[in-house]
Design a protein that fits this description.
- It is a multi-pass membrane protein.
- By secondary structure, the protein is mainly alpha-helical.
- It is built from 16 helices and no strands.
- It has one domain.
- It is globular.
- The C terminus is likely disordered.
């Protein structure tokens, strides 16, 4: 394997997008597989209270990811646009400024999270029997947080440069280490004492740290073009103009994740009121949902990196065709996974929970209502991936806020008296359809093509029609696209 820069501004769009997105999809599969294997160990051997603890803790982790993740996305786009303009010096400056800022933010989040862990779970209404386990688990995760977040940052920067293979290789290493180390630390081996649920978190910490160090050593030895030379170490001194751009554009994108993750905290707080069985069922169903959403997430990352390079190169006709192909691939791939999950609903849930538990029947019911909505939400992910590549970051944030906080959560909360827990489950498809309609309207009629990540970006071609190219690169006629991860 060799770190490479892939030119995403030439060649057939369909095959180029698939070639770039497949390693991203593979990384998503590995991450979900890792989480699922960990859930199997915890659910089968430590009990439903432990599984409830990890479900609550993982939502907190996703929330914290949103605090700093927007800077990583902004870095990806700026790197992509710089590479599209063939300005490698600027790409290195972006990575230098972004990495310092990213590390500082992640350390602050880790320290605050560690201190306030008990208060967080009390505020969430985590079942009392699960709170000690959740605190033990999450505090170790907080120690690992800076390594986890910087690992993600480096991978996003590489993808912005067109290199999706290197992140996949080292994600695979991290997942392999985590899977192997989980039973070792949970149950103890030889002189190592059994650590229970904290051992699962410790395995994650070690796996992330080892993989991060290995990837950095690999990039240095191979002389990746994003790395500065010894004479260019000044790129790690934050540049005020770049920092302003990263904050101004990264904050709204990070807030998109905060909107989703904070709503997930509210949602699981509502679920917690129905007891451990329902919370465990919801946590297991959520594990399966990550698999259904993986193609859309991979395509969203792919179209964002691809569109960013083409925006940097001023190829606006090609940007519209990227959106068309991305939406079509999402409908096919996400739709196929949704069908598979419906067919194997009971069998897939049995992987995580022992037979005869009430949680399995509850989870089956949840899946029947929710799963199809991820096809619609996937379209939104793809289109938002395209529009954010130009620097249009506020409209997606507003759309997500409306669909989640003004539609999904009020429905889930206010209609429980009449419909019980079903109000929570039906709020998912309702919110997904609202986000799709709003995102489709913004993509078709909004002014995202006039947005800029930074000064100096090429202007859009005034005569560019919306998605009117005759060929998408996949043998499909171009069509006006209809229209980011719900959980």
């Amino acid at each position: 394997m060799s770190p490479s820069r892939q030119d995403l501004t030439t060649g057939p769009i369909g095959s180029t997008l698939l070639k770039f997105s497949l390693p991203v999809l593979g990384g998503n599969v590995l991450q979900s597989l890792n989480a699922s294997v960990n859930a199997i160990w915890v659910g089968h051997y430590l009990g439903e209270a432990a599984l409830t603890a990890t479900s609550n803790a993982n939502i907190i982790l996703f929330f914290l990811l949103g605090v700093v993740f927007g800077v990583g996305i902004a870095t990806t786009i700026l790197v992509g646009q710089s590479v599209g303009r063939k300005d490698i010096a600027q790409a290195r400056c972006v990575v230098g400024t972004g990495s310092v800022f990213f590390i500082v933010l992640s350390v602050i989040a880790a320290v605050l999270g560690y201190v306030f862990t008990p208060a967080i779970f009390v505020a969430m209404g985590t079942p009392i029997e699960a709170q000690p386990l959740a605190i033990s688990y999450l505090r170790v995760i907080f120690i690992a947080l800076p390594f986890m977040f910087f690992f993600s940052f480096v991978m996003m920067a590489l993808r912005g440069a067109g290199d999706s293979r290197t992140p996949f290789y080292f994600m695979a290493l991290s997942v392999l280490l985590d899977i192997v180390l989980n039973p070792v630390f949970i149950f103890g081996v030889g002189p190592l004492p059994p650590l229970g649920i904290a051992g699962s978190a410790l395995a994650t910490l070690i796996a992330q740290l080892v993989s991060l160090v290995a990837m950095l050593v690999f990039l240095v030895k191979r002389g990746h073009f994003l790395l500065p030379t010894r004479k260019e170490l000044s790129v790690f001194k934050p540049k005020p103009a770049l920092l302003r751009t990263l904050v101004a554009k990264g904050l709204p994108m990070g807030l998109q994740m905060v909107v989703i993750s904070s709503s997930a905290i509210v949602m699981i707080s509502l679920v917690n009121t129905y007891g451990t069985d329902t919370t465990a069922a919801y946590g297991v169903a959520s594990q399966l949902w990550t698999y259904v959403q993986m193609p859309a997430l991979a395509l969203g990352a792919g179209v964002s990196s691809m569109a960013a390079q083409n925006v940097g190169a001023g190829l606006w006709n090609r940007v519209d065709r990227i959106a068309t192909v991305g939406v079509g691939l999402n409908l096919v791939l996400t739709g196929a996974l949704a069908v598979v999950l419906y067919v194997f609903n009971r069998h897939s849930l049995g992987i995580f929970l022992p037979d005869g538990t009430q949680a399995i029947a509850i989870a089956q019911h949840i899946n029947l209502i929710v799963v199809w909505s991820f096809v619609a939400f996937g379209v939104t992910i793809v289109l938002f991936g395209v529009v954010r590549a130009t620097g249009a970051v506020y409209a997606p944030l507003i759309i997500l806020f409306i669909s989640i906080w003004l539609i999904r959560l009020p429905v889930a909360s206010l209609l429980q008296e009449r419909f019980g827990a079903d109000a929570i489950w039906w709020s998912f498809p309702l919110g997904a359809m609202v986000s799709l309609v709003l995102a489709a309207g913004y993509y078709r009629y909004g002014g995202w093509r006039n947005s800029r990540m930074a000064a100096g970006a090429p202007e859009p071609e005034k005569a560019t029609p919306v998605a009117q190219a005759p060929e998408t690169g996949m043998g499909m006629p171009a069509a006006a696209p209809a229209v980011p991860r719900q959980g």
